[in-house]
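PT: before anyone asks, these are the final sequences, not the draft ones from last week. 434 residues across everything. Please model them as a single complex and drop the result in this thread when it's through.
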Amino acid sequence: MRRIESEALLLRSIELGETDLVVTLLTETDGKLACIVRGGRRGSHRLGGALEPFHTMHVAIDDRGRDLSTLREARIERVRGRLVSTLEGVEAAGACLRWARHLFPVRTPEPQGWTTLVALLDAIDEGAPPRRELAAAALCLLTDAGYGLDFERCVRCGKPCPHGRPAAIDTVRGGLVCQACGGARRVIGSDARLLAYALQNGERPEASTDDVEILVALAEDAMAVHADLAS
Amino acid sequence: MNTGKLTRLTKLLARLPGVGEKTAQRYVLFLLTADEVVARELGRELSALRDNLQPCARCGNIAEVDPERAETICSICADSKRDASLLCVVARVHDLMAIERAGTMRGRYFVLGKLLSPLEGVGPEQLPLGKLTARIETDGVREIIVATPPSVDGEATALFLKRELEPFGVSLTRIASGVPHGGDLEFADPITMGRALSGRQRI
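LR: through. Structure below.
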C-alpha cells in the first residue's frame, strides 16, 4: 500500500450507502483519483468540512492501486471565500472542474492541468471576471489534455491565417480550417479569435461578453468531442 | 426448496437505502417466522403507500391523499394557524422534517427537490422556480428563509434564489451556519470558523 500526500481539488462527491462518500479528487502529484470516505456524510466526521469544491485541500490517501483508494485525511489549505460568495464565480469554477473531471484520465499526473485550475480558482477569488477566466481556463485545459485548439494556422495544411481576420473553426479537427481545405460551419470573428489567442498565451485583455461566450461555447464543444460531458 | 420468492423479496428489500443482502434476508426470515399479522399489515401498507401518500401540490412535502379534495395538500399547508407570509425553502423533505423537529418554525415550506450543482451540471432550469414565485404571489409571502444546506451547492442555490426573488420585494434570510451547539472551536474547519465569525451576533 502506498500513502499519497498531496494538494488536491474536489471534482465530485457521490453519496454511497447511508454514511459513506465516494469523492473524485484531482491531486497535484498523482492526477485524478477516486477515493472512498468512510463515514464522510456524518456531520461529525473529521473530514466532512474539508470536502468542499473550490478550496485547495491537503489530502492523505491510502492507495492499493485499485479503482477506489481510501481518503484518510483532508484539511483545507487555501480557502476561497470570495469565489463561493458569488453565483457567477461558483458557476464558472464548477463548470471548469466538471470539464477537468471528464477530460483527465485517472492516475495520470496533470501538472499543467493542475496549474490551470488553481490559477482559475485564484483569479475568480481575487475578483477577475468569472466568464473570461472560464474561457481562458477552458482553452488551456484543452491544451493541457492534448486537445488544444489552433487559432493561428490551418490544422490541415498549416497555412497561417493573418491576424485581424475571422476564421472557420472545426472543433473535431482541432481548430482553424482554411477555405482551401473546406472551411468549417462555425466562423468566429476577428476579435474573438484575437481574444482566444491572447487567453491561450496567459494574457487577460478586456473582452466583450459576446466574444467570451463564443469561446466558452467553442471550448465546451471541443471537450464534448473528446469526452462524454453528460456522464 | 423453492427459494425463488424468498430471493426475490430479499433482493427487493436490499434495494432500500442502508439495507444490504444479509439484512434484507434477515427481514424476510423475520417476517416469515414472526406473528403473521406483522407481515400482512406491512404488505397492505406497502401496497397502498403510493396511493395514500403523494407530494403536496403546494409545497412538495409528503401529503396524505384525500379522495374528497381535488388536490393533495399536506398537513402544514392545510394548517390555518401557520403564518402564510413566512416561507421556508428547503432542498429535501428530510430537511423540512428536521426543521419541524426543532419546533420553532411557524410558517410554511417549499421543497425544491434538488439543489444547483455546478460540479454536476445541475442548472437553474432544473429548479421549480415558477412554482415558487407563484406561491409567493398567491400566499402573500413577506419573508423567505432559505434553509438550503451550508455546502457549495446549498450556497449556490441560495445565491440564485436571492437574485431571482429580490424583484418580488420579499425579505430574504438565510439560516445561520457555524460552530454546532456543544462543539469545540479547536476542531472547527476553516470554512465553518470563517462563517461563524462573519455571522457573529451582538450580545
